[in-house]
Specification:
By secondary structure, the protein is mainly α. Helices cover 55% and strands 0% of the residues. It folds into two domains: 1-38, no CATH class; 47-112, no CATH class.
Length: 112
């Protein structure tokens, strides 16, 4: 029961749900920062973020098949999962550029 009371309005002595703005400022943003999400003060941290970040991690880091991730998100098209919900990985991009320069006989230190 205590978890429910924490997300209820203090002013209304738990009689009404907490307002969305208070929930974001008092709960969601601090939780995101504690989890290591880089967010500026005042930056919107929406529940939709909980779809983008895990999707990107599942596809890029955990190497889960994109069709499986598509199914988890219930997208009708794989393009939605891959084009909108995943981003390029900086480390993989740099590694690919380094491999290309090496194939050309150029030192990978030349890439920035």
């Amino acid at each position: 029961m205590s978890g429910i009371r924490q997300l209820s309005s203090i002013k209304a002595e738990g009689g009404v749900p907490i307002s969305p703005a208070v929930f974001v400022a008092g709960h969601r943003r601090p939780a995101a920062k504690a989890a290591g999400l880089q967010t500026a003060d005042g930056q919107r941290v929406g529940l939709h973020s909980l779809r983008h970040s895990p999707t990107n991690w599942l596809v890029k880091k955990a190497k889960v098949e994109p069709k499986t991730v598509q199914s988890i998100l219930r997208h009708s098209r794989i393009q939605t999962t891959l084009d909108i919900y995943t981003r390029g990985d900086g480390d993989e991009t740099r590694d690919a550029q380094g491999a290309f320069l090496k194939a050309l006989g150029m030192a990978s230190e030349m890439a920035q």
